[in-house]
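Subject: Interface between my chains keeps coming out wrong

I've been trying for a while to get a sensible model of this assembly. When I model each chain on its own everything looks fine, but I need the whole thing in one frame so I can look at the contacts. Pasting all components below, labels as-is. Any help appreciated, I'm running out of ideas.
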Amino acid sequence: LVRTARASSTGPGRTADGHPVALLANIGSARDLTGDVEGVGLFRTELLYLDHADPPSEQEQVAAYTAVFSALPGRKVVVRTLDAGADKPLPFLRQAPEPNPALGVRGLRVARRDPGVLATQLAAIATAAAACEAEVWVMAPMVATAAEAAEFTAACRAHGLPAAGVMIEVPAAALRAGAILRDADFLSLGTNDLSQYTFAADRMCGDLAELLDPWQPALISLIAACAAAGLEAGKPVGVCGESAADPGFALVLAGLGISSLSMAPRSIPAVREALAAHTLEECRRIAKAALAADTPEAARRALQKTI
Ligand code: PEP
Ligand code: MG
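Reply #2:
Try treating it as a single job with all components included. I did that and got this:
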């Protein structure tokens, strides 16, 4: 029930007074690129290889990444390195079953055990990026500490990749966002996993939907802390979890200082229209009210009262 501005359902994301909030697409391959997007905020590369018994070769990866980069000349593409684990298995990683897969060796943690897979992927991304005009950023999933972030950004730089960041999906990383930004060029908040780990609530469990509601005060507080760290460091902080696709919540995120929102392409028009109907000052007021609320219901009511 947010106010919308119909006239602006194409073009870049902006508040009513022109403050830019990039509206980017979440994709799994070049096939998901539909319509005219500002760019890609989350390229889930693992989805390309879910049925691969053998590791994808560097050339095979270069071809897949080139297909995406070449479709977006002059636009941003944020590539996430393989996000796999016992809960999202890639057959070629040959991971043993784990008692708690969501808490096991997944995301960047796989690279510790198997550094060759990350090195090959970074080399392929760098080769594809060099041959295209897209603005390629690279980020790692499931980072928990500033030391892990520093190790990852160093690996990216060694491959000549100029924009290296991390996803914030683990509360420990959100609490140390400022320290992570000493090395990382940007943060992207994966609010699906950040909710799961903050509330100790399996994201696949429908019975726990109440805890996984993005309007939960604890999640909003963590997002606010990361956004503030980004503003202080002068570095971009985006959101690429499902929460970015909620038009009302997008106003909260813009008001907190989040600089880009990435979502399924079909969700972009509604978020664009909501942003276009509110000034940045209104978004800030909405964010302040949401931050002060003690329950998700109160945060939603605060939005209705503020707009
Ligand atoms: C997230 O966790 O919010 C996210 C965007 O990554 P995925 O949904 O692929 O885990
Ligand atoms: Mg995630």
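Reply #3:
Confirming on my end. Residues 42, 44, 83, 169, 190-193, 240-241 surround phosphoenolpyruvate (ligand 1) (CB under 6 Å).
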